[in-house]
Design brief:
alpha/beta; Rossmann fold; UDP N-Acetylglucosamine Acyltransferase, domain 1; 2 domains; 8-stranded mixed sheet; 6-stranded mixed sheet; 25 strands; 33% strand; AcTrfase_PglD-like; Trans_hexapeptide_repeat; PglD_N
């Protein structure tokens, strides 16, 4: 028996789990199960899928695979490390309409929602989330546990470091191989922002052009 788990039964998880069913063709495979895993769940099922906690998942007999649909990237990392240490394997979720064009390297545990695109010669790290209508263009380098909200436009020669979050509708200007636009580790790009220059680690930027947010005391 092969068991495929989506960890996180919130809104994004409910959007992603049908993509898993489409990928795997469960109607013709009796030796395969798709489930939700969520320690905070109050029900036994959700949207037609069995719902269990992490301990129950790990006790199940069979070959276990997982993906994580939790927005908090630090939580994604913690859960992934634990499940892998317990013998489960990550798998990538890719919608049938997602496009992966040419010579891209994509790490384990990614989620590519409908109408997402990765063009050419991009490198993407572990547990990347690409929500609907987002794209990664040529020669980009994306770190681990990076999140794209819907409709993110990441143009060519951009570097996005680990745990960065790019908000809905944000656009990152194209860099060059010699001078890429760099979004630092843990940075947040606000919804609808236009990023025209690099963003320092653990900095939140917003606007057009995107600028660091200031506190009320500044």
């Amino acid at each position: 028996m092969k068991i495929y788990a989506i960890v996180g039964a919130g809104g994004f998880g409910r959007e992603v789990i049908p993509l898993v069913s489409q990928m795997l063709g469960t109607t013709s495979q009796e030796n395969l199960k798709i489930i939700f895993v969520d320690d905070n769940a109050q029900e036994d099922s959700l949207n037609g899928y069995r719902l269990v906690n992490v301990e129950s998942f790990l006790r199940m007999e069979g070959e276990k695979f997982f993906n994580i649909t939790i927005a908090n990237s630090k939580v994604r990392q913690k859960i992934s490390e634990r499940l892998i240490s317990e013998g489960a394997s990550s798998f990538t979720v890719s919608a049938l309409s997602a496009v992966n064009l040419s010579h891209n390297t994509i790490g384990e545990g990614a989620v590519f929602c409908p109408f997402t695109t990765v063009t050419a010669n991009a490198k993407i790290g572990k547990f990347f989330h690409a929500n609907i209508y987002s794209y990664v263009a040529h020669d980009c380098v994306i770190g681990d546990f990076v999140t794209f909200a819907p409709n993110v436009q990441c143009n060519g020669s951009v570097v996005i470091e680990d745990h960065a979050y790019i908000g809905t509708g944000a656009m990152i200007r194209q860099g060059t191989p010699e001078r890429p636009i760099v979004i630092g580790e843990g940075a947040v790009v606000g919804m609808g922002s236009v990023v025209t220059k690099s963003v320092a680690p653990y900095t939140t930027v917003f606007g057009n052009p995107a600028k660091p947010l200031r506190s009320a005391s500044q």
